[in-house]
Amino acid sequence: MMNISQALLIGPIAVAAGTASAQTVYYPGDGITDTTDPIGVFGDAAPGFGTGSFQANGATKTAINMSPEILFGSGASFTIDDIANISFWTKQTVLPSDPGTYLNWYLEIYTATEADGQDDSWYRKRINFEPYFSPDLSDANQPANSWVQWSTDASANQLRVFDANRGASGSVFGTYTDPFLTDLQAGPVNWSTFNAAYSSTPATYETDSVWFMAISTGSGWASGFDGQVDGVTVTLTNGQIATIDFEAIPAPGAASLFALAGLAVSRRRRS
Ligand SMILES: [Ca+2]
Known about the structure:
Elements: H1 2-9, E1 21-26, E2 33-35, E3 39-42, E4 52-55, E5 62-66, H2 68-72, E6 83-91, E7 106-111, E8 126-129, E9 147-151, H3 181-185, E10 210-216, E11 228-236, E12 241-246, H4 252-260, E13 269-270
Parallel strand pairs: 1-12
Antiparallel strand pairs: 1-13, 2-5, 3-4, 4-11, 5-10, 6-9, 6-11, 7-8, 7-10, 11-12
Bound molecules: calcium ion (CA).
C-alpha cells in the first residue's frame, strides 16, 4: 500500500485551513491513484463538474485517493462524526436489471491508526460504500448513459456502508441490510443487528480521524469495467464543503503543452 502514502504526500497547492469551500481538479496521471490510472474523458462531465470525467481503464483496479488536506487544505482534519455528507457521480452503459451484479465505482474511507491496540490493520477502520447495495437501486433511479449521483445521506441513491472486518467469521463484503453512515455516527455499532453475517462485538467509528478516502474499482472485476466517475463532494457538519472535479487533459495539441510544462499545473485548486 505504499503508493497511497506516496500519493498523499504529493499534495496540491494548499489553501488556508478553514476555507469554507474549496475545489480540487484531478487529471489522470496526477499521482493521486494507487495502482493504475483511470482514463480521462473529454466533453462528458457530471452536472456542475467541468467538461471532463474519468473512465475506468477496463483492465486493472484504480483507487483515486483523497486526504483531508487535499480536500480542505494544509493542516485540515475531520472525524467520521464531522461528515455531513459525501456524494459522487457515476455514469454507466448498463442498468441495474442487466444480468450480473451492478458493479460501479465505490467509496472507501480509511481512518488513522491510534496507539491503543484497537486498529484493524495498517489502518484503524475501513468502511465501504458500494452503489449496488443502495436501497434505491432500480432502472428508474440509475438509468443507463446518464449521470447518477450517489450520496451517504438520505437523499436519492443513498449508500449503505459496510466494514468487511466485522464479519462473524471471516470478512463480509457488504449485505443488502447494512446500515447507513448516520448509524455509525450514532455510537458503537453492533453489526449483528443489521445482518447475522456480522459480529455482535460493538465497533466504534464516530471519533476516528479520517486518514484518507478513495473512489475505487474492485481488483476482482476491474477487467472489462468501463464506468465513468466525476464530482466528489464532501460536506462537513461545520459547513465546510470540498469538491474534487475529475477532468481529462484536453485536445492533443494542448496535451503537448501540458507535457512541456511538466504537468506542474495539472492539479489546481480553485477556491
Ligand atoms: Ca469533471
